UniProtKB/TrEMBL annotation:
GO terms for cellular component: cytosol; protein-DNA complex
InterPro entries membership: CheY-like_superfamily, Sig_transdc_resp-reg_receiver, WalR-like
GO biological process: regulation of DNA-templated transcription
Keywords of the record: Coiled coil, DNA-binding, Phosphoprotein, Two-component regulatory system
Ranges of residues in domain Response regulatory: 7-122
Protein name per its UniProtKB record: Response regulator receiver protein
Molecular function in Gene Ontology: phosphorelay response regulator activity; transcription cis-regulatory region binding
Phylogenetic classification of the source organism: Bacteria, Pseudomonadati, Thermodesulfobacteriota, Desulfobacteria, Desulfobacterales
4-aspartylphosphate PTM positions: 57
């Protein structure tokens, strides 16, 4: 079975991490976009169609990951977000999950673990989009009098 690449946006102020992680994701077949701060990440989301998953660092100068997550969910509610940080606390994990993050990982995270979270987030986005399509179809049928 052929794998359909996920469109992944990596947002982190650590440029070396972003570059190495992006190379690994591309090698595993994903389509990768990058940004080095929250505002740049939001700009990429506005420009690119159908980003599936954002891997988002929490501790960044300027707009931090929690602020960025809020904006992502406000303007792109179906995009899934995996929070990633080297400065994790239970409070930020709980706050991120309450704001709609798919999951939360601590750096240094194993690539396989991050990839597994990305795949799970992609599946959840696909399932949500499918439910929306079915609801829209039912609504169209009702308007047409076929139900």
């Amino acid at each position: 079975m052929m794998k359909i690449p996920a469109k992944v946006l990596v947002v982190d102020d650590e440029k070396d991490f972003v570059e190495m992680f992006s190379l690994r994701l591309e090698a595993s077949g994903e389509k990768v976009f990058t940004a080095f701060d929250g505002r740049a990440g939001l700009a990429v989301l506005a420009e690119q169609e159908d980003i599936d998953v954002v891997v988002l660092d929490i501790k960044m100068p300027g707009m931090d990951g929690i602020e960025t997550l809020k904006e992502i969910k406000k303007h792109h509610p179906l995009v899934e977000v995996v929070l990633l940080t080297g400065h994790g606390t239970i409070e930020t994990a709980v706050q991120g999950m309450k704001l709609g993050a798919f999951d939360y990982l601590l750096k240094p995270a194993d690539f396989a673990e991050i990839d597994e979270k990305i795949q799970g987030a992609r599946r959840r986005k696909d399932e949500q989009e499918e439910r929306i399509r079915k609801a829209e179809q039912r609504a169209m049928l009702r308007r047409g009098g076929n139900i």
